[in-house]
Amino acid sequence: MKMLIYFRDLMSDKRFSFGFTVIIILTVLALISVMSPYSPVRWNVVPEEKPPSLKYLMGTTSLGQDLFWIVCFSIKNSLIFALTTAFLSRVLAIVAGMISGFEGGIVDRSIMILSDSLISLPRVPVLILVGAIFREGLNLYILALVMASLSWAWDARVIRSQILSLRERDFTLTAILSGSKSLSVVFKEYFPHILPIVFASTLNNMLWAIGIETTLSILGLTNPLIPTLGTTLHWALSYQALFLGVWWWVFFPVTVLILLFISVYLLSVSISEYLDPRMRIQRIGQAR
Amino acid sequence: MMSVEVLRTENLKSYYILDIFGKKKVIKAVEDVSISIKENEIYGIAGESGCGKSTLLKAMFAAVEPPQRIIGGKVIYRDNGKEYDVYHISEEERKKFRWHFISYVPQGSMSVLNPVMKIKEIFKDFIETHTKGKTKEEIYEIAESHIRDLGLPSGILDAYPHQLSGGMRQRITIALATVLSPKVVIADEPTTALDVVTQRGVIQLLKDIQALKRNTIIIVTHDMGVHANMADRIAIMYAGRIIEEASTEEIFENPLHPYTRYLIYSIPKFGDKKKRESAPGAPPSLSNPPSGCSFHPRCPFAFEKCREEVPPLKEYKVGHKVACWRVEEGENATA
Amino acid sequence: MPLLEVRNLTKIFTIGNVFSRKKVIAVDNISFDVEESEIFTIAGESGCGKTTTAKIILGFEEATSGEIVYKGKRIDHIHHRERRELLKEMQAVFQNPFSTFNPLRKVDRYFYETLYNLGIADTKEKADEIIKEKLAAVGISFEEFVEKYPNEFSGGQLQRISIARALLTNPSILIADEPVSMVDASLRMSIVNLFKDLKDKYGVSVVYITHDLTTAYYISDRIAIMFRGSIVEIGPAEKVLMEPRHPYTQLLKESVPEPDPNRKWNTRINLSETEQSEYLRQGCKFSGRCPKAMEICKRESPPYFDVGGVKVKCFLYKD
């Protein structure tokens, strides 16, 4: 019930409604990939290099694949990959940030030293190195894990500083006076304040994940047999699609990428504004 | 002596219009306020938090920023015998008034004083922005003589804000606001965050400035003790309206509005342990004020008419205005 | 036996980094007792150490040295579990009611948590009953209270609710840190009267921490005036505030603006220019501003002298 109200409020924001609609369309495309008549790894299942038509909505590739179905598979894999990365790295960030902020002392210092080292590490070269080491063995889940462990540090820091400031607020003392234990203070009192950061950073992290995956794929550092938006572009580029006039092979994946980026960005902006504690405080309890 | 008017509002209305994810919220912070402020007087505006007093000040200072809006009425400045309707002149002209004719002392001193600049540099920056064609030496000269005039130690000009105490910082903010000799100084809760001893020092300074420069001070605070010590006339504000206005002696000796009475009679005094009662209930919300007289839900004397019609602010005797149906109907001529 | 004893309490904060450490003595060797069913006021300006004292009593800060004794038992350095048990006896009310409760949580949650966590109620019915009783004591109805967020109340209402929460455990002592300074002027006295009622009707002791001497005079039995970490004068409120002995208490009382236009100030005062100088001062910390300062005040810190039942920390009363 509450969720419905939140959703209705959010839909009144144009940015959210646009982003949401696009994401829904992309999700539908990702879902119907299970109905694909062809396996995404098989070649030469349809005539080569046919321009978009009613029969082949997005045309066919030089490899004899139906681009429409390939794009559907790519969206599915890219979204799953982005969500996995974001989820794993959020879990790491929340746990590290909360423990560090609430415990303080030596625990805090060790976590912060670790996070500082990760922040100062140049992430793209590290990922290229990882890609080069794993080569074909690099499936999307391993890549997601590697990326998650590289990207939690900054958000953990943000969460920690939030907790540090919340700890000084009087309501922390009220909770203690009410007999609450530390863990319950952290989850009941602090978590609602942390949530907006988590949400906004989840979406940002997804954007980053998709971007990096595309970069690595185009460079040929991931397994090209797993169709993602990046690997699709990788094949298109290695077959010199643009040069040969097979423009749709590049156009559709790029369009989907751009749409995905814009819509996730808009969702992130809109949701973080909506969840901003100051805004929430103004919204809740308008009876007065 | 006929005193000359320096600033006046006519039926001023100023609201905050907020749009929170499609839900419109209108806060009627200033409703129909008409006050007339004279040259070289200290005019006090009293009221509790959320009664619209800061909004009124911003409207008078012509520093209205969204979501605050002027909905109706006028603010009139009177300078050298000429009247200017502040919201009907260009922004350029308005700027000329700011700090030269009217200035503003905000609540927190730290937000005004740049922490990485010495006090004299802050003065230099301020004077440079608002006047033209002065050399650095001339500006330092002005700042120093102003500081000396106000009886503040001149050594503070070489200090950084964090090296000074809170009271000294607040006094510097006041010195800064008055360095261009404005005719009207608006002070918004200038002593609220300060300790009593410091507060006394700040009030002392404001009074000194008034005696020295013969200007007008509009002071807003909820502390009736401060008003008793400073103001010549006092206006009591409640839920966006002025409900009573009179000279300070008159307000304290013969308060007419029930709200004013609660305000004054509830303050405990040394040597008197008589039970003090607060007004019942709580202040109304400005986004949804009660019908009729906005004090009626809390007023022990309220009757039918109070619930239906807003009482007008009427002069009950010379210089004493009150907005209360009970006074109007003469049932409470004395008490 | 006094209910609460504070003995030689000192708190030193170190500020700065490894290279330039500075010590600030926030609370400097203070001692006082709070009797049963008594309103004891600690009054002073900001930075005098009154809030730090309250936090140490409540166990939110650790003292550098000194003892806190409650009902004859030391309560500084006690275990978590004992501290939780102590919550039933000792509760607190804070200055700003809007920061007392988490703005994103409903207020009634704190009530149920207090009752369940401390084992006072085990069923919802029982809890509701206790909550209703305590809300009635502060003049709030249960219906207007349940399922609401803090910003749905006015400051005055919320402060009453905060007091009701503190009363849930039937405490013997309430620590109230500036409980009325954020409450609207027209409602302030109703809260102050509430503390008086609690003492008169339920025999609750209150440590009332304030900068406002007039409300302190109005409700307290005894008062301690603090200045820069030390108690400079302590005794019955009537005596301390009607005939202040210490020059600082005199200045403080005289600086309260009286709501009477016929009694405006006619003397002038000097203010300290910077904040730190007085903390680090040798001898009596007030000597720099004191109109009656003598040679000895600048060298030695004065002991307490008993003047007609009032203890004054000032060399003026040496004989």
**Topology of chain A as a string of helices (H) and strands (E):** HHHHHHHHHHHH
* Overall body shape of chain C: globular
Q: What is the overall shape of chain A?
A: elongated
Helix percentage range of chain C: 25-40%
Low-confidence stretches of chain C: none
Number of helices of chain C: 13
Number of strands of chain C: 12
Radius of gyration of chain A: 22 Å
For the terminal residues of chain A, how far apart are their CA atoms? 22 Å
Greatest chain-chain contact:
B-C, 50 and 45 residues
The name of the CATH architecture of chain A is Orthogonal Bundle
Radius of gyration of chain C: 21 Å
The arrangement of helices and strands of chain C along the chain is EEEHEEHEHHHHHEHEHEEHHHHEE
Taking all residues together, what is the mean pLDDT of chain A?
A: 86
Unreliable parts of chain A? none
Q: Largest sheet of chain C at a glance?
A: 8 strands, mixed
Largest sheet of chain A: none
Helix content of chain A: over 70%
What does this structure look like?
The complex is a heterotrimer of chains A (288), B (335) and C (319). Chain A has twelve helices and no strands. Chain A is an all-alpha fold. Chain A has one domain: MetI-like (MetI-like fold, Orthogonal Bundle), CATH 1.10.3720. The model of chain A has no long low-confidence stretch (mean pLDDT 86). By secondary structure, chain B is of the alpha/beta class. Chain B has helices spanning 53-60, 91-97, 119-130, 136-149, 166-178, 196-213, 224-230, 248-253, 258-265, 304-308, 325-328; strands at residues 5-20, 23-33, 36-38, 42-46, 68-79, 82-85, 102-105, 184-188, 216-221, 233-238, 241-247, 314-317, 320-322. Chain B has an eight-stranded mixed β-sheet, sandwiched between helices. In chain B, strands 1, 2, 3, 5 and 6 form a five-stranded antiparallel β-sheet that branches. In chain B, a hairpin with a 2-residue loop joins strand 10 (233-238) and strand 11. The longest helix of chain B has 18 residues, at 196-213. The mean pLDDT of chain B is 88. Helix content of chain C is 34%, strand content 23%. The model of chain C has no long low-confidence stretch (mean pLDDT 90). Chains in contact: A-B, A-C, B-C. At the B-C interface, helix 5, helix 6, helix 7, helix 8 and helix 9 of B face helix 7, helix 8, helix 9 and helix 11 of C.
